[in-house]
Amino acid sequence: xxxEKIVAELDLQVLAGTAQLEREAQGCYIADLLSCxxxxxxxxxxxxxxQTHLNIIAIASMLEVAAIVVTEAAPIAPATVERAAAEGVIxxxxxxxxxxxxxxxxxxxx
Amino acid sequence: MSQNFSxxxxxxxxxxxxxxxxxxxxxxxxxxxxxxxxTLPSTISMRDVKNVMRSQRISGIPIVSAEQQKLLGxxxxxxxxxxxxxxxxxxxxxxxxxxxxxTALDEEPVVEALKRLERTGFGRLVVVDKKGNLAGILTKxxxxxxxxxxxxxxxxxxxxxxxxxxxxxxxxxxxxxETSLTLRYRVRAGDFIxxxxxxxxxxxxxxxxxxxPQLARRVAIATYEIEINLIIHTDDGGYIVAExxxxxxxxxxxxxxxxxADVSLARQPGYSTASSKAREMGFGAGMGLVxxxxxxxxxxxxxxxxxxxxxxxxxxxAVP
Lengths: 110, 320
Description:
The complex is a heterodimer.
Chain A: H1 3-10, E1 13-16, E2 28-30, H2 34-40, E3 46-49, H3 55-63, E4 67-70, H4 78-87, E5 91-93, H5 98-107
Parallel strand pairs in A: 2-3, 3-4, 4-5
Antiparallel strand pairs in A: 1-5
Helix pairs in contact in A: 3-4
Chain B: H1 2-14, H2 17-26, H3 29-32, E1 40-41, H4 46-56, E2 60-64, E3 71-76, H5 77-85, H6 93-96, E4 103-105, H7 110-120, E5 124-128, E6 134-139, H8 140-166, E7 181-187, H9 197-208, H10 213-233, E8 238-244, E9 248-255, H11 263-266, H12 276-280, H13 288-295, E10 298-304, E11 308-316
Parallel strand pairs in B: 1-2, 4-5
Antiparallel strand pairs in B: 2-3, 5-6, 7-8, 8-9, 9-11, 10-11
């Protein structure tokens, strides 16, 4: 499913990567333990996390995930947003908890 | 005029038909026309026309009504010659200008305009927009120049593609008995902000020299884990050195302490000695070395307490 559709369906805020929402996403990976993400997340997946520090951008870039979705409106420092923009990582934010966000995604036919 | 005419016929015969033909379909009239056009009012004489043509070096000028700027006709060098032959330079422009105007639409493909030029034998077309307003003027010279520009662009694109293709063969351009590239990074203890920079740079370098995405990713993930280990666990940081050879990539992380008390325990999944700060950030799952090992073809750890640790990873480059 295209990110722009996901953003619209889940009412996500786009913090970085507005111009890249044509990208296709496939599958999800949900974890806050970064080593689990490094081991388990696959390219083109959506990565749901509550981590918001700078390092998540390095991980997303390395793994080539389609986008990071930070849930529960966790506050994200401007430095993280800037790094995301610089690295071409798409950074999205949801006001709802991870479970509700993912449930909506499934309802939308993802 | 017939010379210009046959030029296009020759182009079609001598040059590979497909690319020129394609371009005439791709390019819009508005991209090649001369948009800045001077117009002249219908009240002037052929002598004025001659002066304007000479001073502005143009061969065709649209004539508009003085009051409403409405397009009335087009006066060309050919009309001027007729006036000269008849010794009627003082006649009004309206007497010699062409009024049965053949126009081109600014949004139509060049091929349509070209067909119209060839069919009518005219040297130029007045270009109008959808509403019929004057948009520009189009000569065969404009089309030629536009096609040449487009050909040049295509040529550059092809050249670029060839270059890209070359860089896709890992190390192909470098010839020696033993070629290697060494990348060295200083990693500082506790510097979470820069965490991942070394691995990210190694990944970019590998992609740049033509490694497959899979290989670049594998090396980057493993390197990231040992880079984070240097940040979380060392007293004074350490170094990451990647030695890249055509058949093998070796990434080494070394530091000066504190060293690992029990290496085999440290290599077990889930075992971690990370600080609570690191854990809060999502590090310290006890999976770092396990992940690295999974990505690398070989992983070796040497460590001694108070001395330091050396992690060496080997990645074999699959021969395509």
